[in-house]
Design brief:
The chain is an alpha+beta fold and about 350 residues long. The protein is built from nine helices and 16 strands. β5 and β6 form a beta hairpin. The chain starts with 16 loop residues before the first strand and ends with a strand.
Length: about 350
Amino acid sequence: MSCGFINRRYSRGRKFLYEEEIQKLIEGGEKLKRKTISTLAVDDNYRSRLVKTTNLNETLSKLQQFGSGICRIEVAQENGPNYTGTGFHFGDGWILTAAHVLRNRDKVNMARFVFFPPGTEISFEARPRRAIVHRLLPAGRRPDYHNRDIVLVKLGFQYTYGRKKDDLEEWEIDEQQLLEQSDLFNFTSLLEKTFTPTGDEQFSLKSTDPLTIIHFGSGQNDRKKFAYDIETYEVYKHMDLKVINFAFSFDSGASGCPVIQRVGEKWILVGVFFGGAYYENEANSIITGQALVWNQEVVQHIEAGREAVDKMSSFKQYNVFIPFSERAQLVLETKVKEAADLAVKHRILIL
């Protein structure tokens, strides 16, 4: 099982670079650029666009820097095949991904997060972690690519409010030290602080506008992939947000990766990739992916959820299997009410 789809009939050649190819291009410099690109097993049109890219080394160095903050999410299942998705570091040890990659508490607890900075591997093993789900759109039946929900999962210290050093678990301390030593790229640095509710000023996002995604595959082809300067198929409005349909199919495991746009010399985090979208054009039926263009309101919802998790020292489950008297008492507790208020105001679900 994987969180993305492949349509080989539509894909005539890959339109991405592996990290070792990026490193080879950087080391070769501008003088060897054409020769190196000519040896790459990529789509011919994509090869031509790479050759025409000005300051290619500078661009690829920037993408490699971004890549240090991308992780492969490996989810083990007791009653089914394991699967993978992609996530990215959203600051302070938070990993952001698509909610259908980690759709519930069981999946969060069984997930392993692995980063691959050049020449090394940094892994965070499966633990009982804090996590929040944010509904980018009004709630649907389940977290999937149609609803375009996102989830954030905490690495390192799970929360700090009211805790002393002796209260911390040993694995939390070890992970926090690893985070501080690793210098993972923080994608909040690519957030645009002034975009409008529709994104019109900062993001033109016509169907011809190139974007970049960095993601992992699955199975035997699980290396990090840098899809730079890729084309979109269409951009349309849904409610007060914009939706991007991509122009070609993606490898499995791409769900949850960041979507980045270059505007002049600035790189901007546009949103999150959701694998599994299906649409038709004149030539093909395409199984590919979508992204929802964020706005400032989405960022505020995320920040509210992260702050709430850090301040809530305990969580109590509320469901019909709890005796009625206990449920009644639970509703009266201040922290539970705070969580409910948060869910209503910011469309946040704390797992």
